[in-house]
Amino acid sequence: MPVFDRILCVEDDLTIFEVIKSTLTQYHVVQAQSLQEAQTLLDKNSFILLILDILLPDGDALYWYQDMRKRPDIKSIPLIVLSGNSDLNRKSQAFSLGAEDFIGKPFDPLEFKLRAEAKIRKYKEDQQSSLYRKVGNVLIDGKKYLAVVMSDQSETDLGLTHTELKILSLLSTSVEKVYSREEILSYVWGGVSVADRTVDSHVAHLRNKLTGTNLSVESVKNVGYKVVIRS
Predict the structure, then answer these.
(1) Model's pTM, two decimal places?
(2) What is the rounded distance in angstroms from the CA atom of residue 202 to the CA atom of residue 59?
(3) CB under 8 Å to 124, separation ≥6 — which residues?
(4) Structural domains present in the chain
(5) Which of 69, 148, 152, 154 shows a CA-CA span of 20 to 30 A to 123?
């Protein structure tokens, strides 16, 4: 079965959620009916878009998001705010917190689809261009398709394959966050059906090549993998 990109829709109205889900059929749209449920899902999964209703049973979503966006992995996810209240102050608050869009209820499903897909497309382009990063003593350069270990005297190419580099790029996006095999499959191989053991095999080779660095890839039983920086 193909692996789909995940979208988190924080909306307690089932009717509206079903409209969004039926509109974005090429994605895996996950519903959270409360802020607490949303936080649990964000802690355990990666998403390419966050759709956030303002008024939820356990609080005001914009105040909740104000705290959540302090996390780099959350702040990087494009945010669309939904609300039946199109008050200018609410819009101003949403955009000041980094919202990509503010859509009033009710909305036209086709227009919503076009606006959501524009955010997702930009997010993926930004992800591709942000592959240049330093994690521990390893520098990842996605444009040149290489990773080097840095020392005071030199830089040594780790000799990663394209697949190994993509796995390391994903895991290093948020150090010590556990990424499931499904998330790794989705990021590296897209919708192509690939066996879980393929991920394990590539991770094993990646581990060996990271031996001379202060990074290590650790497995979390029955969940997936994470990158840690050794002291």
Answers:
(1) 0.60
(2) 43
(3) 48
(4) 6-129 (3.40.50.2300), 133-229 (1.10.10.10)
(5) 148
